[in-house]
Amino acid sequence: MHGPSPAEAATAAFRCPPLTDLVHSGKIDHEETPAPIRRHSSFLIGSPFIANHLLTMIRVGIIGATGYTAFEAIRLIQGHPQAEVTAVTSRGDEGKSIVEVHPALRGSIDLPLSLADPAVLAQQCDVAFCCLPHAASAESVRSLREVGLRVIDLSADFRLREVSVYEEWYATKHPWPELLGQVAYGLPELFEDQIKGADLVANPGCYPTSAILPLAPLLQAKAIDANIIVDAKSGVSGAGRTPKLVNLYCEANESITAYAIGSHRHQPEMVDVLERFTGVQADILFTPHLTPMDRGILATIYVQGPGLTAAKVKQMWNETYADAPFVHIVDAPPATKHVSGTNHVHMGAFDAGGRVVLCCAIDNVTKGASGAAVQNMNCMFGLDQTMGL
């Protein structure tokens, strides 16, 4: 008999019953049900139709609401049939309307930006999407968890398991180190059981998503060598909304450049998460590139193994992702335009001189960030993964 893995045991304490389980069982008990159910409990007794529609109207707070990932999260949630944005916060734009910061949201939402007061947010929200930079995010997450809010953290603060690795790559002390290794990693295609009912989820990085999904089934089957090259191209939105010289139009347009060669912070995340899922420690050489497009990532990954062919790769992918609604195995080379603005993942495998070349295209802002966060929220609250996506 095999007991639960360390990650499964660690996340067990963060679980609550999925809402849909409570609906179908008729278990509408005020003491046992999560906050979204308690708010509507007076309407639910004896009314399965109303229960099914009201239980999962989830109130979402966006912490640090002025960046691209926050905008995308708000856009997606406002189109979600069972969730709504009820609070938006900012330290630099307090008092402004959200549409002043994100004019494209006009007509969809009109909330004032406020400072993040955990006590107030606990009354306004059921879950918070934390869109702050690393270190600052962990401090905010801690205060939000202390008042009972469930959190999806879009920073890197809880993705890694080892404090020493985090502090080496991010060059700062971790504000909540005792929690590292105990937080569900928010890639439902691989860690759905840990995400379900969790109170804190670490949303994956964009580049790691594009590398982990193609590589995980192959490493798990020990079908490839552990020495792997990941070459990835990203749109300019991946650098965030804060102005930087390299992101200015005249610098980025008509130009492609490599950056952070051998030193990008997403490299240890790839290694750590792949080892977590497969038990294999990969040796990954990762080089990211900045490309003159708004959004999108194309990862080109070079692998080899005894008898490995593209056909065998696709077979392993199909077996692993048979029930993954957003993963698509394609025959033609994937293109970022084909996934732009979506939560979908297009993966292809191609024979090349005794090696196999893997290609993976995602939208860095959607599947690489905010779309994944909505997908994780759906899992946490017992909804269908595709809802609102």
TrEMBL record:
It holds the Pfam family Semialdhyde_dh. The active site is at 206. Residues 59-198 form the Semialdehyde dehydrogenase NAD-binding domain. It comes from the Bacteria. GO terms for molecular function: N-acetyl-gamma-glutamyl-phosphate reductase activity; NAD binding; NADP+ binding. CDD domains: AGPR_1_C, AGPR_1_N. Catalyzes the NADPH-dependent reduction of N-acetyl-5-glutamyl phosphate to yield N-acetyl-L-glutamate 5-semialdehyde. Belongs to the NAGSA dehydrogenase family. Type 1 subfamily. HAMAP family: ArgC_type1. This is N-acetyl-gamma-glutamyl-phosphate reductase. It comes from Roseimaritima multifibrata. The gene is argC.
